[in-house]
Amino acid sequence: MSRYQTVWLATPNNPDGYFTDKAVIRAVAEQYPDTSFILDEAYAGLCSGEHATSDTNEPSNLISIHSLTKLFAIPGIRLGYIIASEAVIAQLQEMRPPWSVNALSQEAGLFIMEHYEVLLPDFKELQTEVSFLVNAFADLPEIEVEPSSCNFFLCRLNKGIASELKAFLIETHGILIRDASNFRALDQHCFRVAVQSREANEALVKAMHDAQSKGLI
């Protein structure tokens, strides 16, 4: 590990939702102080129910990246932040473009900070919907579901192609899934699903059964 200058990690990992304990990552960072560990926690708040806090005891070589875009479902507004040591932040400030965040995003960020607890998604509700969808997909014999504690999970078709299923769902039902065939080590049978409201999740389940009846699954 010491021969690497930088290591990028994601927790939870995308697209399978695998969650690595922060304590494990912290221990590895302490073991290799000459390597910078950049931790992508864009979905962490949606998967663990815990939200980022600044910890002065974090290793100085550990940098964590967070996304308000994901946590508060504002995809049209790219907004996030970094938690790192003062030295790292100072270096980043030297390289930061003058207008890295536009005026609309700044206003959105201020509004979120002022209403943070009120706007936070209900973690328990998300987990309830994950369980609902996973159990519903279990009734589809030609789909394998990767266990996940996150608000999304990875699926694999034993029969059918993910891109064809995606096209059918969007054209016939107006539902979009993520074709995961372009992720390294995955193939044309893999796709990712993210939970939404119970009504939307029930619509997805109905659409999947329709796809099954059409021979796409």
Strand and helix layout:
Blueprint: E1 6-10, H1 22-31, E2 36-40, H2 44-47, E3 62-67, H3 68-71, E4 80-83, H4 86-95, H5 103-114, H6 116-119, H7 123-138, E5 143-145, E6 152-157, H8 162-173, E7 178-179, E8 190-194, H9 198-213
Parallel strand pairs: 1-2, 2-3
Antiparallel strand pairs: 3-4, 5-6, 6-8, 7-8
Give a brief description.
This protein is an alpha/beta fold.
Description of the molecule:
The chain is globular, with a radius of gyration of 20 Å. The strands form two sheets. It has a four-stranded mixed β-sheet. The protein folds into two domains: 6-119, Type I PLP-dependent aspartate aminotransferase-like (Major domain) (Aspartate Aminotransferase, domain 2, 3-Layer(aba) Sandwich), CATH 3.40.640; 123-213, Aspartate Aminotransferase, domain 1, CATH 3.90.1150. It has helices spanning 22-31, 44-47, 68-71, 86-95, 103-114, 116-119, 123-138, 162-173, 198-213, and strands at 6-10, 36-40, 62-67, 80-83, 143-145, 152-157, 178-179, 190-194. 41% of the residues lie in helices and 17% in strands. The chain is α/β, with parallel strands linked by helices. Helix 7 (123-138) packs parallel to helix 9 and helix 8 packs across helix 9 (198-213).
